[in-house]
Amino acid sequence: MSHPVTLQATPPAKAARVQISRKFESSCLSLWCVTQRKLRERLVLDTFGPRQPSESKVHSWIERQGWMANVPDAAEVMKDWKPPQSIQAPTDSQSIRRMSRRQCWKGLQLMDREGKGLRVVTSRPFARGEVICDFTAG
């Protein structure tokens, strides 16, 4: 409580750790460092959003943060990267057929454009390869 783990905080000095617990001061430091590293990994993952970045892009971003210790490894961060659940595309053909019949496509809206008629606009980001809609010119 007296030395909270944050993204930019420095670990408590040895004297402060010894004051808290002489016997477990090195374990406390290790736990503090691991916790800060995980916080930083979460920040990196949250920064890049729905599209998977390249490892070099992640590495460059991490370097720009100026962290000197408890720095997450870009390759390790890339292994943990997953797109947000909100943009997971339906991948089974039954779901796609159901959406086609109902013409219920999440993330697409029809809007009236003055003098030009209706247009389709998106209301959320789409993942590469995600089925957006079924269009048939009539």
Q: How would you explain this protein's 3D organization?
A:
The chain has about 140 residues and is mostly helical. It has five helices and two strands; from the N terminus they run αααααββ. It folds into two domains: about 15-80, no CATH class; about 85-138, no CATH class. Strands 1-2 form a two-stranded antiparallel sheet. A hairpin with a 3-residue loop joins strand 1 (about 110-115) and strand 2 (about 115-120). The chain starts with 13 loop residues before the first helix and ends in a 16-residue tail after the last strand. The mean pLDDT is about 75.
Q: What's the helix and strand layout?
A:
Blueprint: H1 14-20, H2 25-47, H3 55-64, H4 74-80, H5 93-102, E1 108-113, E2 117-122
Antiparallel strand pairs: 1-2
Helix pairs in contact: 1-2, 3-4
Please give the domain count: 2
The first-to-last residue Cα distance is: 66 Å
- Helix and strand content put the structural class at mainly alpha
What Rg is obtained from the alpha carbons, in whole angstroms?
Answer: 24 Å
Q: Give me the number of helical elements.
A: 5
Q: How are the strands ordered across the major sheet?
A: 1-2
Mean pLDDT, all residues: 77
H/E element order: HHHHHEE
Q: What gross morphology would you assign?
A: elongated
DSSP, total strands: 2
The amount of helix comes to 40-55%
pLDDT < 50 stretches: none
Largest sheet: 2 strands, antiparallel
Strand % is 5-15%
